[in-house]
Amino acid sequence: MRAHVSEVSTHPSHCKKEMTEPVANALGGEDQPPGSLPPPLFPPEAAGRVPLHVIGIIVVSIALLVINASLLIINTAATMDSNAHYARSTEIKRALITFQSVITGLESSQRGYLLTGQTGYLEPYHVAMRSWPKQIERLRELTVDDPNRLADITSLEGLTTAAVSRLEQTIRSSPQPGPHGNADVAGTDRATQTMDRVRGVVDRMMSEEDSRIEASRREVLRDMWVGAGVAVLATVVTVAVLIALAKLLQRYVRDRESALRALRAANQHLNLEVEQRTAELTELSQHLIRVSEEEKAKLARELHDTLGSNLTAINMDLNWIQRRLPEGSREVRERLQRVLQMLADTVELKHEVIEGLRPSHLDNLGLAFAMRSHCREFTRRTGLPCDVDVHEDFDDLDPSWSIAFYRIVQEALTNITKHAQAANVRIILAREPDGIRLRIKDDGVGLTDEALAKPKSHGVVGMRERMREMGGTFAIRRPSAGRGTVVEAFIPNPTKNASTAA
After folding, report:
1. Of 348, 365, 368, which Cα lies nearest the Cα of 356?
2. Residue 110: Cβ within 10 Å count
3. What parts of the chain have a pLDDT lower than 70?
4. In this structure, are 107 and 235 located in the same domain?
């Protein structure tokens, strides 16, 4: 594993040399002698002062552009104002059409009920009764800044209220509607006359809105033509000035483009080198983490299978010998008892080594139980209270997720023991709608930005690489209130992770 790392890693000075060589080759040439200065990026005439007539043309061009922009802004403001009036009139007309449709439906439903006696006509009638006040309110909102329109809406509301009252009165005065009933025909005629007045007001308002819409349309077209004419004239003058300026600057541009092409090529080469090295190092670090976990699991299985069976056999044989010793062999019994105690300590040590390599609780009892067990052991060794806030077993987690979360908890608790000087530790593992989030909080002295940026913060790098391999995120931050440190790891759900990757 160390040999693998050494093959991919490079010395900083070597990397710096490799990354600077393309720039030197692109700008100075490969045959440039050591210690000599590279040639200038631009020729001397391009690096000199710009002639006064060129500066004058630039100033004129800027002034023309400012004038053009000002005229366009003024014309655009006028066009937007006309367009706003056009949109307002269109919206009012649309609301009047809707109101007219509601009133027509109201009258049709009332007539249908009186002529046929079918109660099914009453349902659209009641719907229209509830709807027409809303339409009046909508019209009032659209015309609130226009007193003339608002007066028409008020008049329309009064006429509609009277017409609706007469419609309701005809329904109440017709207890037996239908072709053979006693419908209130006279009341219906009076209601129809009132409704005709309402329709007359609506038609008049719609005609006025059509006139306003046409006037606004003409204003918009006029503003557009004026703006187009001003823009064309200013553009023609500006283009003429810019053509003259382009001819004067053509020599400068040509020289600068050649230098920029070389710089772009060098930067592109450097970017490719950096991306390739970053991808290689990321893949290597994740590979080393996977290999380390596989080797730990393999070693733990070998210790459990081989050493565990041997220790069990030794324990059985020693117990067999103890049962068959004579009663008078007191000294031998004492020595045998010490051997049995040492064997029990060895079994316990074997168990701790195996749990450190690959926790059996993680594979057999789930992540939640393994975290609680590790926190109990942490409290036993350090005396620090460790609270685990987990409300489910997480038995359905992918094994790679479980070991990643578990290792982050291990590393975080190790850092807390060494550096935090904390009095309390809390671990929170919760399932969220878009993934699973782990938080480790302590109330210690906290970590500074300089400490996190140290090159030797391998533990932090390892935790971050574990989350990156899972497609998740990792962060270390200060709590919003109080002192201490918060270590947070999050792995999104597989579906979201896949869509993000896509």
Report:
1. 348
2. 28
3. 1-51, 53-54, 175-176, 178-187, 252-253, 282, 285-286, 289-291, 293-294, 297, 300-301, 304-305, 351, 354-356, 358, 360-361, 448-458, 495-502
4. yes
Determine the Cα–Cα distance for residues 273 and 271; give it in Å rounded to an integer.
Answer: 5
Model pLDDT, residue 427: 93
Question: CA 432 from chain center: how many Å?
Answer: 15
State pLDDT tens for residues 16-52. 444 444 444 444 444 444 444 444 444 444 444 556 7
The CATH number that applies at residue 431 is: 3.30.565.10
Q: Which of 211, 230, 249 is the last residue of a domain?
A: 249
Split into its structural domains, the chain has a count of 2
Both 85 and 205 in one domain: the answer is yes
Identify the three-state secondary structure at position 293.
helix
The per-residue pLDDT for 38 is 45
Which 3-state string (H, E, C) describes 380-397? HHHCCCEEEEECCCCCCC
Displacement of CA 72 from its chain's centroid (Å): 38
Asked if the structure places residue 60 within a domain, the reply is yes
Contact at 8 Å (CB) between 371 and 404? no
Residue with the two structure tokens 């009453």: 122
**Angstrom distance (rounded) from CA 260 to CA 78:** 44
Q: Are 250 and 84 in contact (CB under 8 A)?
A: no
Give the residue from 249, 266, 281 where a domain finishes: 249
| Residue at token pair 């009165």 | 169
- Residue 225, in any domain of the structure: yes
Neighbours of 64 (CB within 10 A): 18
Residue corresponding to tokens 């005439």:
45
What's the confidence (pLDDT) of residue 442? 92
How far, in Å, CA of 178 to CA of 183, rounded? 7
Q: pTM score > 0.70 for this model?
A: no
Show the domain range for 145: 52-249
CA distance 211 to 205: 10
- Asked if the structure places residue 468 within a domain, the reply is yes
Q: Which of 229, 199, 212, 175 is nearest to 104 (CA)?
A: 199
- Residues 221, 96, single domain; the answer is yes
- Residue 210: CATH number of its domain: 1.20.120
Cross-strand pairs, 432: 435
Report the distance separating Cα 6 and Cα 11, nearest Å: 10
For residue 335, is it within any domain? Answer: no
Q: What pLDDT sits at residue 7?
A: 36
